[in-house]
Design brief:
Strand content of chain A: under 5%
CATH superfamily of chain B: P-loop containing nucleotide triphosphate hydrolases
Helix content of chain B: 40-55%
CATH class of chain B: Alpha Beta
Oligomer: heterotrimer
Number of strands of chain B: 10
Structural class of chain B: alpha/beta
Number of strands of chain A: 0
Order of helices and strands of chain B: EEEHEEHEHHHHEHEHEEHH
Order of helices and strands of chain A: HHHHHHHHHHHHHHHH
Largest sheet of chain B: 6 strands, mixed
Shape of chain A: globular
CATH class of chain A: Mainly Alpha
CATH architecture of chain A: Orthogonal Bundle
Structural class of chain A: mainly alpha
CATH topology of chain A: ABC transporter involved in vitamin B12 uptake, BtuC
Chains: A mainly alpha (about 375), B alpha/beta (about 240), C mainly alpha (about 325)
Shape of chain B: globular
Number of helices of chain B: 10
Largest interface: A-C, 53 and 52 residues
Strand order of the largest sheet of chain B: 6-7-8-3-9-10
Radius of gyration of chain B: 17 Å
């Protein structure tokens, strides 16, 4: 949220009210708040009592790692592309796969340490984002979506058909991250799920922190400008292509980051874990919560990941349910459940993405001559 | 009154483009709507044709309330427009464009084609030409001819002189007079105020979404303040 | 690379490619028509096709038609399958327009919102058929003997292939003439070129858009029944891959351009089969995806140029 928007929309949405309330508190209350949040997330959330309510049929800390934690991270990454820069990426799962396979291959074939592979996976994913993005990001929005879908399919089929990825069988015996000291919360092994939850929690905090820094920088403002009116941004001298590429690469690197964690916890990966359906589910996370608004996106990812785990039998219908949710959201609340103020204003204004046959609607936004 | 607009407000998003417009057009008249760029002239015509929604106010045609009637149905009532920028379908031939004008009409069109070709012999020569490749003047003739194909009661013309050479402008205006003499009521939007006032019986002056004057055209043409505001620059250029 | 097999397989690949390509071409028309009018990728069109294949299969199972027929029974069975297929597809296309697109259009939503809505609708349709029909392939009966009529090189020209190509070409010509010559077609072209002026001429935009979806749905229905004749099985996700290929065909020919869809369909069908014989059959889909990406990157307006607008007769 930039200074401009604060001046522009004084009423604010949910996020704005929370932020203003927060700023008004004295420092010791703020410190207490942080400690409470820490306590809630670290001790309360993974506790047995909460688990009984949230996931009676499975290991709750494991569910918190995957799918919940991983979906949150992926949604945060995709949100940079969709929510911030306004580009629809239908092949986002490819970057998740790049991270996962980087972990699997580098650890099993090259015997690299997990902590070395994390930056390696990020760099590989960012590089593949740049390679895919460089030629494609000049395309119009809907064509870009189809191209990313095509790329996702190409990668899927390549992984299935070349030898060194293990084909449809995938790769097994991926090592866990090495233990840190002798503390049990830093010991990574099967059946010991809580350490993974803390690991991904830390990753989420890191990503949220870095992205909010970015949002408040020149880059973030450029993204807003691109999303709202790409042509005007270009005319004002914003190098739109370069900033879109940035967004694409950053989104990709978060995807790769998530993939590394995922592979090291699963210790076995195959192409079936990186399907097109995941790309769409992550997109649901982003638009459900409110694209462009991180608390919203996190909430969306939590709901999308948790519901099928909690309610047996729901899994069979989850795609059906989320499909209906997508259509209903686009019809009734395109800004999502927890929209940012700016997004809300954009939706009301009809900005962003280019109208769908704008002239077909009598109330289109042409200016009289 | 054939056409009545009563205190109409139109919005684009939060911007109020028309701030309470009222005007009347009687059968057989030529009425001109003049004003500067951005005054809301085109919006007024689009609103009358039903392609801009009315927020408050009423539009009546022949006594019938048509405020919320869909645009395509107003054509059947006899309201037909040659839009700003001519709106020629670029991929259709002259004949097809003219047929579009009579889209909802049943029965033979021979008589109507004859009438249009009679008014615009140029179009008869170019029947098979594709609209997008025609000159500006030809496109304007086509736009007016196409609107006539609907056999309108009221013909709405938006800037028929735009982008045309002076000689063509006077030719188009004399044809408009001819069409009116044949019994078609005309509501005309023009920036070229002198030509418009010379042609029209009555006129309305529009300023940022409001009607500021309405008078017989001859009075406005003679009025010094109107001359200064709207006619000054135009006098030498197009008279 | 198996250039040798490309040479030995050339004629069979060509024949199969043309057969498949003519199905893609019909399928592609739905993308092209809707794009021409709404400037919008009808992402859920793959499900329009899927419902067509399902409906045709359902009526065969329902009437217990499972063996080779002859004479009037054969003609009747084929017509019935086609009728149900077209009906199912057309109804799906209309429902999509009504539920997933029209409310967004009314609000002036962005193109991306429409795309997301379509993705949602596509998932819903797939799941409905998966849940109520199972996730297994169901068979479509072979209604007539696929006997060889004559040979071209090493390729056998069989009755089913001839039926598919002839039916596809007849339907495409019929559609092209409809758009070029009828009042409905003129309305569609007018809305594609300039929707506001079309309204000023008395064209009912909502109805024209509905008819556009209807025409695209009927064509997808024909494509669907021909697909059943060719491959003799279907399931809930059958539309996905052919859908991407048909979309590629539409863009390759020039989206919005009806003749372009035919050209694009044939090229994609041929490329897919040639790609399979050169690189191995596991790469046949990848060949098309690579073409898709390359076309969008280097010639997004297609071979014949975009738009229904220019498609003057």
């Amino acid at each position: 949220m930039t200074a401009i928007s604060r001046g522009m929309a004084p009423l604010g949405g949910f996020g704005g009210r929370v932020r203003r309330f927060w700023r008004a508190q004295p420092p010791f209350l703020q410190l207490l708040g942080v400690l409470l949040l820490f306590f809630a997330l670290a001790i309360l959330l993974p506790s047995a009592a909460v688990a009984k309510v949230m996931a009676p049929q499975s290991s709750w800390p494991l569910v918190l790692f995957y799918p919940i934690g991983c979906y949150v991270l992926l949604a945060l990454g995709l949100n940079v592309v969709v929510g911030e820069a306004g580009m629809l990426d239908l092949g986002y799962v490819a970057f998740f796969a790049v991270g996962g396979y980087a972990m699997a291959l580098l650890a099993t074939k090259q015997h690299w340490n997990f902590w070395v592979i994390v930056p390696g996976g990020i760099i590989l994913a960012a590089a593949s984002g740049l390679i895919l993005g460089a030629p494609t990001l000049r395309l119009r929005g809907d064509y870009l979506a189809i191209v990313t879908l095509g790329f996702g399919q190409i990668i899927d089929q390549a992984v299935n058909n070349v030898g060194w990825t293990g084909g449809p069988q995938g790769i097994s015996s991926i090592p866990h991250p090495p233990d840190i000291g002798h503390l049990s919360i830093f010991t990574y092994q099967i059946g010991h799920d809580r350490p993974y939850y803390y690991l991904i929690l830390a990753a989420i905090f890191l990503v949220v922190f870095l992205i909010s820094r970015l949002k408040n920088s020149r880059v973030g403002r450029a993204w807003v400008a691109i999303r709202e009116d790409e042509d005007a941004a270009e005319l004002m001298g914003v190098p739109t292509y370069r900033f879109r590429l940035w967004a694409f690469a950053i989104g990709a690197s978060v995807g790769g980051f998530t993939g590394v964690f995922f592979a090291s916890q699963q210790i076995f990966i195959n192409p079936g874990q990186f399907t097109y359906a995941i790309s769409v589910l992550i997109l649901v996370c982003v638009v459900l919560g409110g694209s462009g608004n991180m608390p919203g996106v996190i909430l969306g990812a939590f709901v999308v990941a948790w519901l099928p785990e909690r309610f047996r039998g729901f899994d069979k219908y989850k795609i059906l349910f989320f499909g209906i949710a997508l259509v209903a959201l686009m019809i009734f609340r395109p800004e999502g459940l927890l929209p940012s103020r700016r997004k809300k204003a954009e939706m009301a204004d009809g900005a962003g993405g280019g109208g769908m046959g704008a002239a077909l609607i009598p109330a289109s936004l042409e200016v009289d001559q | 009154m054939l056409l009545e607009v009563d205190d109409v407000h139109v919005f684009y998003g939060a911007v109020e483009a028309l701030k309470g417009i009222s005007l009347q057009v009687a059968k057989g008249e030529i009425v001109a709507l003049i004003g500067a760029n951005g005054a809301g002239k085109t919006t007024t015509l689009k609103m009358i044709s039903g392609v801009r929604p009315v927020k408050t106010g009423k539009v009546r045609f022949d006594g019938q309330d048509i405020t919320h009637m869909p645009g395509h149905k107003r054509v059947d009532l006899g309201l037909c427009q040659a839009p700003e920028g001519r709106g020629i379908f670029p991929g259709m031939t002259v004949v097809e464009n003219l047929e579009m004008g009579a889209f909802n009409r049943k029965g033979s069109l021979t008589e109507d084609f004859d009438r249009v070709y009679d008014l615009f012999p140029r179009l008869a020569e170019r029947r098979k030409q594709v609209g997008g490749t025609m000159s500006g003047g030809e496109q304007q003739m086509l736009a007016i001819g196409r609107a006539l194909m609907a056999r309108p009661e009221v013909l709405l013309l938006d800037e028929p002189s735009m982008g045309l050479a002076p000689k063509l402008v006077s030719q188009i205006f004399s044809i408009i007079r001819q069409i009116n003499a044949q019994g078609t009521t005309v509501l005309l939007v023009e920036q070229n105020a002198v030509q418009a006032l010379t042609l029209a019986h009555r006129a309305y002056v529009l300023e940022i979404g409001k009607i500021v004057r309405s008078a017989p055209a001859a009075d406005l043409l003679a009025d010094d303040s109107v001359r200064a505001a709207y006619l000054g620059g135009d006098l030498g250029a197009s008279a | 690379m198996h250039l040798h097999s490309f040479v030995t397989q050339f004629w069979p690949s060509t024949v199969d490619g043309v057969t498949l390509g003519s199905i893609y071409a019909l399928f592609a028309l739905g993308y092209t028509l809707v794009y021409g009018v709404l400037k919008l990728i009808n992402f859920a069109h793959s499900e329009v096709f899927m419902v067509g294949t399902m409906s045709a299969m359902w009526i065969m199972h329902f009437l217990n038609i499972s063996a080779i027929q002859s004479g009037f029974a054969l003609v009747g069975a084929l017509l019935l399958a086609a009728l149900f297929s077209m009906g199912g597809s057309a109804a799906t296309a209309l429902a999509l327009e009504r539920v997933a697109y029209r409310p967004l259009r009314r609000r002036g939503a962005s193109r991306l919102a429409a795309l997301i809505s379509a993705i949602g609708a596509s998932f819903v349709l797939q799941q409905v058929f998966e849940v109520y029909y199972s996730n297994q392939y169901s068979n479509f009966p072979r209604l007539f003997k696929h006997s060889t009529l004559f040979n071209i090189g090493s390729a056998q020209i069989t009755t089913d292939r001839v039926l598919i190509v002839v039916a596809a070409v007849v339907m495409m010509v019929a559609l092209e003439r409809t758009v070029a010559l009828t009042k409905l077609g003129r309305g569609i072209r007018a809305v594609a070129q300039d929707p506001e002026t079309a309204t000023l001429m008395g064209v009912n935009i909502d109805r024209t858009i509905m008819y556009t979806f209807l025409l695209g749905g009927i064509m997808a229905g024909v494509a669907a029944v021909l697909w059943n004749v060719r491959f003799e099985q279907t399931r809930f996700d059958i539309g996905f891959l052919p859908g991407i290929k048909a979309f590629t065909a539409a863009v390759l020919g020039g989206i919005g351009n009806i003749r372009g869809a035919l050209l694009g369909g044939l090229i994609i069908g041929l490329l897919e089969l040639y790609g399979a014989s050169v690189f191995g059959s596991q790469w046949r889909d990848t060949t098309v995806f690579v073409v898709l990406v390359l076309v969008l990157l280097f010639r997004p307006s297609g071979l014949l140029g975009e738009s229904l607008a220019r498609a003057r007769a």
